[in-house]
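Mods, move this if it's the wrong board.
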Amino acid sequence: MIHEGTTDHATTRPVRVAVVGAGPAGIYAADILTKATPTATVDIYDRLPTPYGLIRYGVAPDHPRIKEIITALHQVLDNPRIRFIGNIDYGVDVKPEELDQFYDATVIATGANQDRDLDIPGIDLPGSFGGADFVSWYDGHPDAPRDWPMTAAKVAVIGAGNVAVDIARILAKTADELLETEIPDNVHRHLVTNPVTDVHVFSRRGPGQVKFTPQELRELDESPNVEVIVHPEGIEFDEASLATIRSRRSVKMCVDILQNWAARDSRGRTRRLHLHFLQAPVAILGTDRVTGLRTETQQLTGDGWVRGTGAYTDWDVQAVYRAIGYLSRPVADLPFDPATGTIPHAHGRVLDLDGDPIPGRYVTGWIKRGPVGLIGHTKKDANETIASLLADLPTLPTVTHGDPADVLTHLQRRSLNHTTWAGWQRLDRHEINLGRPHGRKRVKVVPRDEMIGISNTPEPQPDTRA
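Not the wrong board. Structure tokens:
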């Protein structure tokens, strides 16, 4: 394993690496490589004009503590041996074979940003939404729609992870509660019209199998306008649940919180957020739009799993959001396993259809292991992948255009309007300045063209003449 700050794998050969994806996985890979090898330079590509991936476009705007990770990522991107090249779509704007002439290796770190399918009747009805799509909308993703239908008074959210909790919290809160965050203006305008009175969150398994963190759970109860209601009929435990509670402190903390909430009296707040356990969705009801959700009560089987009991409940809801996991997209010219949403690999080396490593192709992050785990897992992934890359380096062909300026010249010849790290810093300052008069942390710029224009327009310099 490579340890940060060491040069166990140091080489005197110049190493040029392209990383595709400017989220945490890609940035950590660049950081580990440049620390391990002083001759390495890295260009991090992203199809978006901005860095940080799901940290910018996948974390709810009322999560300032989680977004503090941006400070650490910012420090990595300040490294002069790491360049950010944004607004370049790998496989569309540049082909893999194009980049081979400029880089010894390419590391794929494109993450996961689309919804996993839920195969139940009614899933395609109007009013049935993918959670990832909603997250992209409220986070101001430039490729997301500007509008969102806010017509449902009663809403169902399917899932028991952090994304499901985020979605439920954003739907239940009043728009004005979010004004102090970096929520985009168009999102705030729509949330003002949100008529919601009840948000129901459904988990197929019990409280001993929840995937959200204690911090995420507690944040549900911080709104002065939202009553969190835990329905006690789903608070059940089997032997596997009890073993998990005993062995994992975070699960025990979540269970303690849920049990306390289930026993407390109503506080009479205007909006209600309901948590239901051991309820599996089996159908979304309606003919021309969502009018309800049918769930089947589940029974714990002793090993942490569940089985249906044959008892069904129809819930009066007018919208359903599924948040049952993210899924990666295929990457140009590389094998892809659609069942797991991952690129086949061995220790980060991408494998072809025969199971042999493809020279110069590596993978890290969620598209390597699936959309599970926390930041620590992402760093471990990157460590393994970079160790494989450096071990392979003597066998990789020398690039024909190794000067870092060559690839920028190539992009300019192709008339590809890319963004840079300096450009992101200009956009960052611009968004912060937009929020300052209103007491907000920032106001996000949403349209892609506007982001690119601000990023690529130098700021006027002060007149220093006497």
